[in-house]
Specification:
Order of helices and strands: HEHEHEHEEHEHHEHEHEEHHE
Number of helices: 11
CATH superfamily of the largest domain: Periplasmic binding protein-like II
CATH class of the largest domain: Alpha Beta
Radius of gyration: 24 Å
Helix content: 40-55%
Structural class: alpha/beta
Length: 268
């Protein structure tokens, strides 16, 4: 009888505690959301930063973010972060680099979702003359005349140093005065006057203060990169990760994405 009385008393105390917590939460409260860890590369950063607060408000989830290049051995690149075991549920980067992570067992096969198409453009320091890059011949003249050129260590820069200069027949003349930028935006280098001309994804140039965006590469030599999202194999919150990816690829997210210089690939 004493034992029964003791159990009944414990249940009553537990119920009282639960009711107290509910009262403190208030009638309009919702259960606490999940913490999602995201790694995103620069090409999608501006759009992601605009969209993240609305997703958090809508779902109640909180999103923790790490930023880094899609590829390369820089300490803050996404491959380097994953190799160190940094927490990640969602990774957003160039599709070719994402597929490489799938092959390496870092991202779940079949989880890849294409989000945007991203073009490459050029910028100069704010107030400086804007060179002509409207045609391939004009681009050649501009590259030859530029005293210094900065390019990224990620997708756009890899294209520049391994393909574009060779295609233009300018590798010998232009590559020695070109500087590969690690762990910093190319536009920031240009804004400080450390390079006369900067090349990077348009979406990475537009947000930078102190530069003037002068336009994209001519269509004949343009390289459009698809940026995609995937779920890390070490994800602790895969369902919430899928929820975020669906949101980023939705038609509702498209206007915010387009404003950052990217072409949305919206879900049908």
């Amino acid at each position: 009888m004493a034992l029964l009385h003791s159990l009944t008393r414990r249940r009553a105390l537990a119920l009282a505690a639960a009711l107290a917590l509910t009262a403190c939460a208030g009638p309009g409260s919702r259960p606490a959301g999940t913490e999602i860890h995201v790694m995103t590369s620069g090409g999608f950063t501006a759009a992601y930063n605009d969209l993240r607060p609305a997703f958090e408000k809508k779902t109640g989830h909180s999103v923790q973010t790490a930023y880094g290049a899609s590829m390369g051995a820089a300490s803050d690149s996404i491959p380097s972060r994953l190799n160190r075991g940094e927490p990640a549920d969602v990774v957003i980067l160039a599709r070719s680099a994402l597929d490489a992570l799938v092959k390496d067992g870092k991202v779940v096969a079949g989880s890849q979702v294409d989000l945007v198409r991203s073009a490459i453009g050029f910028a100069v320091k704010k107030g400086e003359p804007r060179p002509d890059i409207s045609t391939v011949d004009a681009l050649k003249r501009t590259l030859l005349a530029a005293p210094s050129i900065a390019y990224s260590a990620s997708a756009s820069g890899t294209y520049y140093e391994t393909e574009l200069l060779k295609t233009l027949g300018l590798e010998a003349q232009v590559k020695p005065k070109s500087r590969r930028i690690l762990s910093e935006r190319v536009g920031t280098i240009v804004a400080r006057g450390e390079a006369a001309l900067g090349l990077q994804q348009v979406s990475e140039l537009l947000p930078i203060e102190g530069i003037d965006y002068i336009g994209p590469l001519p269509a004949e030599v343009q390289r459009v990169t698809v940026f995609s999202a995937g779920i890390a194999t070490a994800a602790k919150q895969p369902e919430a990760a899928r929820e975020l990816i669906r949101y980023l690829g939705s038609a509702a997210a498209a206007p915010a994405i387009a404003k950052t210089g990217l072409e949305p690939i919206t879900s049908r």
